[in-house]
Task: inverse folding
């Protein structure tokens, strides 16, 4: 952790360097397919500024989800560095990376990924189980998050009792309940109809403008990408 | 987090119910088999510590001279002694029903076996009636025998029909005697023509009550030493050892029952392990999500283990709840009434019930150990790629 502390200090009190919250430097990611090495990302450089709402676009296999996973600390680059709020995420040991994710990253997935046996409120409360909070505090925060996404009246409903759009909004509430600085969204509108997708995108815009959350969104959908402030195009593991 | 584990049980209700039922059946079977073992060995476990049995040195089936009885009584440390002869009677109305029939000298016998309780007026009636007999309450209930009834038994060792009058019905104050036997006057047998020749004045074995259980081995040795130079030598041992030697004849069966009871639990572990592994496989994507939002491998282990332990413990509790009526009111009552000689007290030992419950929980943990380890080793990115 000492190296991380040093890096964070260099980066300033909020961890961002020159206003950048995410810096990918010469990032390379390869996978082994049998004996063959497959390069998914090749010496990629990317900067995302604090408070940004950036979209990553590209065809299937272009490496956008892989890049998102690296930024979110779900995976490590084969070489290069991913710095998020001044922390070299790839250098963190697995256990510390999990704790770092819990504190700094909010996840939104394409398929919502709710726990079917928990109510909307309990699903939102889930990430807070890892924080040192009383159950009352957890409950209050979860209710606040559901209120932000406009689903306070559905807090006692189970995922199967919600529409796709509502489920995704609960997922967004779960992503923001820990008050992370960075929200990563992987095809958040991929499974939604146009109206629900629009609602979700509006909500993301609001989180970005009103709550100053930095959002990085992977999408195939040009209409969704249009809502982002900046779009990065990837192809064959490199930014265009 | 326990909430999540408990809620997960309701995710596939049929599977959860079937798994619990599997554990329940395994626990009932385990309890039943352990009760068979404990009931079978109850005679040895509950044997009186202050009683010594003396038999022919060569075999149980060879008799001792009746005169040995007085000589045994004269040995220092022996308070009282009684003889017993295996009669081998059968009720012709219930040919297939087994129960022990023994010829004894009533007063001596009740003195040595003070846990046999007969109402005083019935005991007096027995002493005074040469064809009188006392029967255990379980046997009386089974054949609907009442005091004063006349019953005819067919002798298998001493041929012919033997008529007895039920003088009394005894109960047992301790577990060291069974409640399905019939005891009658030794003189009735000894004075009969069937016992007139080689069987006259013979005793199957002698049971002595001693004043100090701590000297049991020493007194047994003294008894055997007394007859060491005679034509018929004796072998004396504590009642426990004597009962154990009876059990020794069926030790292979008992061992088999013992092994089967363990195998049942192993099968339970495999079934439970398979169910838990199935659940883990189905929830791989979900575990990926949990890991992504910051849960550690140890949390996944906790989820998997706690769910398995809840299922196995609930199954265990159900198993115990079912075991009591099934074993004690069903199988136990049947065995006590029909095979009382082998299973005088077919009751669940509380330690068996507690052990079964603890084993259910521990084996639940064991069954889930490998799936839990697998879940903890999942790579987040790989888990998220699996279909949700």
Result:
């Amino acid at each position: 952790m000492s190296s991380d502390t040093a890096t964070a200090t260099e980066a300033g009190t909020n961890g961002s360097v020159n206003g950048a919250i995410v810096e990918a430097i010469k990032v390379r990611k390869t996978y082994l397919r049998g004996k063959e090495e497959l390069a998914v990302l090749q010496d990629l450089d990317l900067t995302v500024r604090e408070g940004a709402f950036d979209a990553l676009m590209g065809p299937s296999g272009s490496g956008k989800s892989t890049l998102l996973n690296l930024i979110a600390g779900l995976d490590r680059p084969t070489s290069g560095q991913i710095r998020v709020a001044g922390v070299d995420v790839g250098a963190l040991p697995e256990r510390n990376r999990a704790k770092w994710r819990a504190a700094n990253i909010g996840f939104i997935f394409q398929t919502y990924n709710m726990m079917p046996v928990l109510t909307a409120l309990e699903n939102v409360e889930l990430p807070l189980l890892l924080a040192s909070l009383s159950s009352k505090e957890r409950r209050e925060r979860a209710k606040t998050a559901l209120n932000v996404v406009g689903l306070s009246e559905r807090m006692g409903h189970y995922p199967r009792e919600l529409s796709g759009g509502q489920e995704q909004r609960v997922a967004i509430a779960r992503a923001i309940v820990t008050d992370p600085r960075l929200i990563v969204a992987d095809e958040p509108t991929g499974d939604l109809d146009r109206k629900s997708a629009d609602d979700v995108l509006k909500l993301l815009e609001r989180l970005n403008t009103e709550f100053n959350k930095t959002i990085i969104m992977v999408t195939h959908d040009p209409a969704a990408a249009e809502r982002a402030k900046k779009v990065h195009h990837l192809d064959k593991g490199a930014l265009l | 987090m326990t909430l999540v584990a408990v809620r997960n049980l309701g995710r596939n209700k049929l599977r959860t119910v079937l798994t619990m039922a599997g554990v329940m059946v395994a626990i009932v079977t385990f309890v039943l088999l352990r009760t068979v073992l404990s009931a079978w060995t109850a005679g040895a476990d509950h044997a009186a510590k202050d009683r010594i049995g003396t038999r022919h040195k060569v075999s149980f089936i060879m008799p001792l001279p009746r005169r040995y009885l007085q000589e045994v009584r004269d040995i220092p440390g022996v308070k009282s002694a009684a003889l017993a002869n295996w009669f081998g009677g059968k009720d012709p109305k219930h040919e297939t029903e087994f129960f022990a029939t023994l010829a004894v000298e009533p007063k001596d016998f009740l003195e040595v076996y003070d846990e046999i309780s007969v109402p005083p007026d019935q005991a007096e009636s027995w002493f005074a009636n040469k064809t009188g007999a006392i029967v255990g309450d379980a046997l009386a209930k089974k054949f609907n025998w009442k005091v004063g009834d006349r019953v005819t038994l067919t002798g298998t060792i001493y041929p012919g029909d033997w008529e007895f009058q039920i003088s009394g019905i005894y109960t047992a104050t301790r577990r060291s005697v069974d409640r399905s036997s019939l005891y009658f006057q030794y003189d009735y047998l000894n004075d009969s023509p069937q016992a007139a020749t080689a069987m006259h004045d013979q005793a199957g074995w002698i049971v002595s009550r001693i004043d100090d259980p701590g000297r049991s081995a020493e007194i047994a040795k003294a008894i055997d030493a007394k007859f060491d130079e005679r034509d018929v030598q004796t072998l004396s041992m504590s009642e426990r050892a004597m009962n154990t030697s009876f059990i020794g004849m069926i030790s292979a069966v008992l061992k088999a029952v013992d092994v089967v009871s363990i195998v049942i639990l192993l099968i339970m572990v495999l079934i439970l392990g398979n169910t838990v592994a199935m659940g883990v496989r189905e929830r791989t994507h979900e575990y990926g999500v949990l890991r992504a939002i910051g849960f550690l491998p140890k949390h996944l282990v906790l989820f998997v283990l706690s769910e398995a332990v809840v299922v196995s413990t609930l199954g265990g509790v159900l198993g115990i709840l079912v075991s009591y009526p099934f074993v004690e009111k069903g199988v136990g009552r049947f065995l006590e009434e029909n095979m009382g000689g082998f299973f005088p007290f077919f009751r669940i030992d509380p330690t068996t019930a507690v052990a079964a419950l603890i084993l259910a929980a521990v084996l639940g943990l064991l069954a889930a150990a490998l799936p839990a380890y697998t879940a903890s080793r999942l790579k987040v990115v790989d888990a998220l790629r699996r279909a949700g």
Remarks:
- Chain B touches chain A at residues 1, 3-4, 7-8, 10-11, 285-286, 289-296, 380-381, 384, 388 (CB under 8 Å).
- The first helix of chain B runs from residue 2 to 8.
- Chain B has a mean pLDDT of 89.
- The two ends of chain B are 21 Å apart (CA to CA).
